[in-house]
Amino acid sequence: MPLISISLRTGTTPEYRRLVSEALHASMVDVLKIPQDDQFHVFHEVTDDNFVMQPVVFGIPRSRRTLFIQLSFNERSAEQKAELFRAIVDNLRLRAGVPEEDVMLMAVETARENWWAAGRVVDPATGYDERMTDVPHPPHLPDAAHLSDGPHLPDAAQLPDGPHLPDARGHSGR
């Protein structure tokens, strides 16, 4: 269940953002072998004064169209991340016309047990979504077995006192 956050300057079109999203998703499906319906992209359009960057970074000129892309997903090998980064750069260039020098990528890896969504079932042998068949099989995944039967959330009576948010019907539950 990767999450991708894309920061860019205001002024892009919905079509451009759609093409960027398609390029990113195609890369994730091809390289990380995520399911086709596992797509969560959030665009953050910011004003020029809130997107501070030098015009030349690492000796390469960068344009006003520079994208900062943060990828959040489970741990992957350095080789797989390098392949993913290359696929993203290539797909962004081919599908959305984004030049390589205007792509900044960062991966944030989290433990497999830190992801949850209703309906998602984790294979205890791999720690990945059970629909992902082409994933590494680590020799040992601590605590992965408990993930297959859903989250272990406390009963409402076990929650500490504090602000109680209403449910969809407006009831606070207390």
Shape: elongated
Average pLDDT over all residues:
78
Distance from first to last alpha carbon:
33 Å
Share of helical residues:
10-25%
What fraction of the residues are assigned to beta strands by DSSP? 15-25%
Spell the H/E element sequence. Answer: EHEEEEHE
Structural class: alpha/beta
Could you name the key traits of this structure?
174 residues, alpha/beta, 2 helices, 6 strands, 22% helix, elongated, disordered C terminus
Give a quick rundown of the structure:
This protein has 174 residues and is of the alpha/beta class. It has helices at 14-32, 78-96; strands at residues 3-9, 41-46, 56-57, 60-61, 67-74, 103-110.
Q: What can you see in these coordinates?
A:
With 174 residues, the protein is α/β, with parallel strands linked by helices. Helices cover 22% and strands 19% of the residues. The chain has 2 helices and 6 strands, in the order βαββββαβ. The strands form 2 sheets. Strands 2-1-5-6 form a 4-stranded mixed beta sheet, with helices on one face. Strand 3 and strand 4 form a beta hairpin. The protein is elongated, with a radius of gyration of 20 Å. Residues 139-174 have low confidence and may be disordered.
